[in-house]
């Protein structure tokens, strides 16, 4: 997994709107890149809505929010519309970005071992360097952690 001080892995992906974006498109801004398991599931919805509800606070700190999951563009579009999410969701069905950021992990779900996205957030500075990593995110209180990190220097949570 990329760590604090590493150059963030570059990526290009299709958004919920069907347009392509790449990490380099956001040079000059901080990027909150959050990986989540699945659109429209309880934990992922709660996390997305927390970022939605605090979106202006994130923007005020000079940052943008990008959500990434292995869901396709159509799924992202429905999820974004249903919850009025004001930030792009990046479709990564081939798990290219998910693999580059090493968040595809073995997890235990209902007593079974499965592979899936481990909820993880990276904060990337204006120059493309990772300043914070939040692995194994617990949804409650996470956006507050992100907001605090956006206002301070490099640290690994």
What is the straight-line distance between the termini? Answer: 14 Å
Q: Which structural class do you get from the secondary structure elements?
A: alpha+beta
- Tell me the count of domains: 1
The helicity comes to: 25-40%
Strand composition percent? 25-35%
Kindly report the name of the CATH homologous superfamily: Glutaredoxin
What CATH architecture label applies? 3-Layer(aba) Sandwich
Largest beta-sheet details: 7 strands, mixed
CATH topology: Glutaredoxin
Helix count from the secondary structure assignment: 5
* Mean pLDDT over the full residue set: 94
Radius of gyration: 14 Å
Describe the model.
It is a single chain. This protein has 157 residues and is an alpha+beta fold. The protein has one domain: Glutaredoxin (3-Layer(aba) Sandwich). Helix content is 27%, strand content 29%. It has five helices and nine strands; from the N terminus they run βββααβαβαββββα. It has helices at residues 42-53, 55-60, 73-83, 96-100, 142-150; strands at residues 12-15, 20-22, 30-35, 63-69, 89-91, 104-109, 112-117, 120-124, 130-134. The chain has a seven-stranded mixed sheet. Strands 6-7 form a two-stranded antiparallel sheet. A hairpin with a 5-residue loop joins strand 8 (120-124) and strand 9. It is globular. The two termini are 14 Å apart. 32% of the residues are buried. Mean pLDDT is 94; it is low at 153-157.
Compose a concise summary of this entry.
The chain is α+β, with helices and mostly antiparallel strands and 157 residues long. 27% of the residues lie in helices and 29% in strands. The two termini are 14 Å apart.
């Amino acid at each position: 997994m990329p760590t604090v001080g590493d150059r963030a892995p570059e990526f290009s992906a299709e958004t919920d709107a069907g347009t392509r974006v790449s990490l380099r498109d956001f040079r000059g801004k901080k990027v909150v890149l959050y990986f989540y398991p699945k659109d429209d599931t309880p934990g992922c919805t709660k996390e997305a809505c927390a970022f939605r509800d605090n979106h202006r606070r994130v923007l005020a700190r000079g940052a943008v929010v990008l959500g990434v999951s292995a869901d396709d563009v159509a799924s992202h579009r429905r999820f974004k519309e249903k919850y009025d999410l004001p930030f792009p969701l990046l479709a990564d069905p081939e798990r290219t970005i998910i693999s580059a950021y090493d968040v595809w992990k073995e997890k235990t779900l209902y007593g079974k071992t499965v592979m899936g996205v481990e909820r993880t957030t990276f904060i990337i500075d204006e120059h493309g360097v990772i300043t914070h990593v939040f692995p194994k995110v617990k949804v409650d209180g996470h956006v507050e952690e992100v907001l605090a990190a956006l206002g301070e220097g490099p640290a690994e949570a």
